[in-house]
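Hi there. Long-time user, first ticket. I'm pasting a complex I've been working with (about 1170 residues overall). I'd like to know whether the download I got is complete or cut off, because the file seemed smaller than I expected. Thanks.
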Amino acid sequence: MNILVSYNWLKEYLQTNLSAEDFAAKTTNAGNSVEYIENMAHRFDNMVVGEITNIKDHPNADRLKIAEVKIGTMKKVEIVCGGVNLRVDMKVAVALPGSKVIWHGEGEPVELHETEVRGVKSYGMICAAAELGFPKYPQGEKDIWDLTNVTTEKAGVPLYNALGMDDAVFDIEVTSNRPDAASIIGQAREGSACTGDKFLWQAKDVMPDGIARAKVEVAVRETELCPKYEAVLLDNVKVGPSPWWLQKRLLLSGHRPINNIVDVTNYVLHEYGQPLHAFDADKLDHGIVVRKAEKGEKFLALDGNEYDLSKDMLVVADHAKPIAIAGVMGGEETGTTVETTRVILEAATFNPVSVRRTARALNLHSDSSAQFERGLSTQSTRPALARAVELIKEIADAQVASEVTSVQAEPYQREAFPFDPKEAKALMGVALSDHEMISILERLGFEVKEAGSNYEVKVPYWRDHDIENKVDLVEEIARVYGYEKIPSILPAGEIDPEHQDQTIVWERRVKELLRGSGLSETYAMSFISGKELSNAGYDPEMSVKLQNPLASDLEYMRPCLIPTMLTTIEKNQRMFPEAQLFELAPIYLPNKEDIPNHKMQLLMAIYEKDGACAFTKAKGILERLMREAGVRQYRFERPESSDSSPLPRGRSGGGLECLLHPTRSANVWVGNHEHVGRIGEVDKQVLNAFGIEQSVILIDLDFDALVPHLSLAKTYTPIPLYPEVKRDLAFVLDRTVEFSQIEAKLKEASGLLREVELFDTYCGSGVEAGKKSLAVHLTFRLADRTLEADEVDEEIAKLRNVLQEQFSATMRS
Amino acid sequence: MKEEFEQLKDLAQEALKSVLDRDKLEVLKIEFLGRKGKMAELMKQIVNVADEERKLIGALANEVKTGLESAFSAKEQELAGAEEAGRAEKEWLDISEPGAWSKEGHLHPVTTAIGEISDIFARLGFACVRAPEVEWDYYAFESLNMPPDHPARDDWETFFIADGAQTAQGKGEKQGKMVLTPHTSNSQNREMAKGKLPIRMININRTYRRQSDVSHTPMFHQFEGLMIDQGVTIAHLKGVLDYFARTYFGAERKTRLRPHHFRFTEPSFEIDISCGVCQGHASSDSTCRLCKAGWLELGGAGMVHPNVIRAGGLDPEKYTGFAFGWGIERTLMMREGMQVDDIRTLYRNDLRFVKQF
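Hi, the file is complete. Here it is re-exported in full:
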């Protein structure tokens, strides 16, 4: 989370001469990342204070006026203006041509030009606060900014002077462990540590005025959730708007000025990092009780909304009703108004987890809740309370009417850690002197004492929940010293060669091979809907289920890549009627004993109109992968008829059987006898369920089972010394005779036959129904001499014979 | 006989004159000089010549034959030259026509980035390992020094497995609930528990957080680096990160460590890299479309917290180490300067996206 820091404000607590840029660079290096610097004066370039000297009606627009504005001792201009609060003698903010304003308080600043508004010349613009970048300034929606009470400067004075805007504002990122740094004082302290400049802050206490007569009664029932509660009563309070200097600081910090009391609580929150709350004392029913909400209790908060509280939420209450959701927001009913004269000021410490869960449950977040969620020290309440009292006395004429009531569950124990400079140097890799290290710690508010040969370091209260280990002290030293001064050295040492996860190594190689074969890789989410699962025949109940899915249709973890792949095909089929895809990703299978089994699945999908054609391509892709990935032995087997009967789905390795076409699928075996997956056309019904109009061939492989068979090793067979002889044969036989049988028989019949290459398969006109015509290239070769033509003729005759005898083939050539 | 040779010579030379292409020349050559050509026929008759003349005629025949051979070869060269001169004109190709591509495949950009990143760390001896994505709370949080009430352990930030603890009998009680890893740091404890030192590992994996908008996907990728040994310092962490950043992003890029806060490291840093667009020159006066003040946030890093080392079964007084990690998607988009206006596009599998890589 970020904090906006006015440099002028910070300099009240840090004596420094650094420019804003130099300061920002230094504090960024120490961990207070300045993400943006706004030089405030720039915002008011070409803007001056104006005084309205005369107002005329606009001839062409009912809602517009023509204001005669004095913008210098001798200079008057006419400006068209729609502000409903416009009056003579009013001091206004005049944006002259060339300045930049935020049009209607929305969007980026836009440069102004001298222009005509409905036919009347207008020399610039009279601005509302929002148009100058202060959308939170309290003013009517159609009002212009009335500067009469804001500045005593005369007409023509540059606006940034009149408003006191000679300032720079830093936007600083503060990490969640540093509530202290989410404040002006915290940033000043950090600044002091990293610049060496003097830190000027000192804690004060509340000083009662005269003899305090009253007492604020406080009962804390939940000390675990509220380890500290302090309250003080202020009397004779005059509620009204805050003076401009205070409003300005709130605006520059992103707060909305409301009234002087609320403003002081926000001011101190920003300055000290400790949230405060002000109650109208006369609206409370007796004293304060810090308790859990009752069941069914309702609460009208300051944001105007009513909230249903639950029993685990902590509230601040009086004896009748809740008056605040502890640490989150106060109540509408007991807030300060112009009628308020007596104020109870609260400074407390609430449990960070309780505040976070309450804010989250109610979806109600405030600056206070954000700060409490980081974890505050019980010791930071009193200084903040004292500062608030000081300011309220100054700007609301109040008097302190009571002692501070202070309820603290346990006595405060200051954390302390041993500190060994040698260890610190060893971890940093630089040799800093003890003196240098201790000085850094002290500038950050740590107390360092010698203890034997080492040191003992006491943690300042504002770092209470953050510094929890001696190594934390090293970080403090290293970051303030500057990481940029630590050298950059590559570690030496042995490198372990055998430490290679083969699955990870092969994932990459296989992906590259598939890309080389023309496949495109997809990455789907690991989540899957119950509908996708059941559409593909999986039982969702057998999948790993999320307790808190982001959307109810993404509540399972994929037990298989197939359903999401089919969804991908469905989404792409119109734009790409054919494609070749693959995904290699983990699947998650429930395991009764432990976390789910993570298995890598390799899924390829080839889709186009013609399934038979796609099958051939898919098989080619798989064969090529086997070859290129060094699988020596693999084979395809038509599934046994029992395989195609429905098997329990949604189990490891299961499901696919009934997903695939019974006569267009095969099991894939590698090595001696390892079943690694299947190839086949997706069942028509499944395609229909996914809305797919193309034919889809899937190759589904268990990658973990495949990996042990993959190899980079190559073999070499000597190149034949003697030429080969090629002949072709074409023949017609039964459609269901498998090529692999034919090939095997032919090779068996001829010792000279080296290769049988199928180059044409044809069914259709000219070929009898139930038959197919095949054409093959045959390659003959001998290892020790050149073959004679008549030797080959003899072999061909033998092969023709085999085809005719064993397969009842009719020769075509 | 003599006249006949002379005539043959004239005849051949006359015929040669009218030859315009090499095919005709070849025919003519066979006609005159072939195995059964006119010259050969004539030469066969030399045996019939009287002995005293035969020597002379023989010499003449050879002279004519040699003469014709060189005439033919001169003609052939002449024709070849002419043909060569016309070849460029005749064989003109339109080189502006698109080339014929062999079928192209595409790897997802995340795969490519993972490959490059692991290659760079491999050179420094960091080996790739993989830890589970559906994981015990113990490895994802508890062993990483995350207190039980840490916001990351709330169920609006992290995905939990339904009935996770109950499903796995026995272990559930000890190792807490089951979660989807919100970071890759669960590999730290698992790697240390293997007890093999020193450790130099990279774990690149899918991670999950309950966020989905134009700049967040509920599933994304992170990589985690871990080095544990005796005497490992911040200087070594800087060395490794510098090497990576300058190799992956370019030698001219600079890195800086900015103090930050993570539960599992102490000290903790954010790693920034100088912006490649403005070369680090952006400031409050001149803004850059990509970066904040000249630097881009790369990821988080730090020295492994003693509690984490202890949880891994090692002695933090003896061993120190560093860890770093960040998002793959962000890293790759930063380098490519890719403007993906909705990061969820990466996982929608629109082939119009996939086929661009």
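A couple of notes from our side: The first helix of chain B runs from residue 2 to 17. The mean pLDDT of chain B is 88.
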